[in-house]
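Input chain follows. Return structure tokens only.
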Amino acid sequence: MAKKRVIAVLVSNDLATDQRVLKVCKSLIERAYTPVLIGRIKPDSMPMPELNFKTIRMNLLFTSGPLFYAMLNLRLFFKLLFLKMDGIHANDLDTLLPAYLISKIRSKPLVYDTHEYFTGVPELQSRPSVQKIWRSIESYIFPKLKQVITVNDSIANLYDKDYGVRPSVMRNIPNKTIAKAESKTRKDLGFSEDSFLIILQGSGINVDRGAEEAVWMMQELDACVLIIAGSGDVINQLKKSTSELGLEEKVRFFPRMPYSEMMGITRLCDLGLTLDKDTNINYRFSLPNKLFDYIHAGIPVLASDLTEVRKIIESYSVGRICSNHEPLHLASMVKSMKDDKVALANYRVNCQLASADLTWENEAKTLNAFYP
């Protein structure tokens, strides 16, 4: 039997909830490769799920800022220098430099999987000197790359315009069959059967994601509960606003949790929110994972008007688009969807139809060209 080829898969996160990367690793196994997933561990990291491949979680002295990225890249460089492997799969720009250098030093093939338009993220917009450093790394390496993947057509077009290299597209869509945790009911979680449950979920509930307005809109909604499930930079502020507005009965928070548990909660809901704002080029062309999670959970979607999101909503008729982020407008959109029982039922049927087409099994065919 031929020896399986080892692929080092690099990320800058703590591995536990990165569904795209975990799915890539499982797809590599199906193609007779052996992935070794390398990332970091933080003090608040969840335990890793049970996996059939090796993971390495590096304990770094720094957790953010320039020293974190310097330490991350240095540690990845030396891990790759001595690791027995046959290729490298680098995820996002913050792992690309050591991956590229080692691919040249050791003559190993490199696949670059960029999950966003990295230099356009909002965290860099107000830090032009830091943005310039990342842009210089990207502009040096990107034109030399032969195998690049990204998450949607709009971002692929941006890279093509910047560097004359158009990545292949592989969207971050759930598996056809999503592993189910022990089934919970609304009663188990303390929700009334009569409540209209709205969910905003994700591991990046940050500024300009519409979460603040979602909380404020709850002042205008009766018989509704907003569930905020996940983590992000604005969670503490959202909790503060909830308390100040006296909305504790209308807004419930759930921490970051294993994906199957989060989907178990999502399936209990009546409406999913994806409200990212068009405040920067990265958000403008984003295609949030939660959009597909809602569709696979069978719940209608209320979404902000972003290019790639609108394509999905309109192509599959799984929800509605809001025209702005004013809390009164969002509340009126929720009310109209809540009251239109026929439309809600149709959206649910369309979600079931869409989920049969929008599967990781279809998206993962893109990997075939890179991992024959």
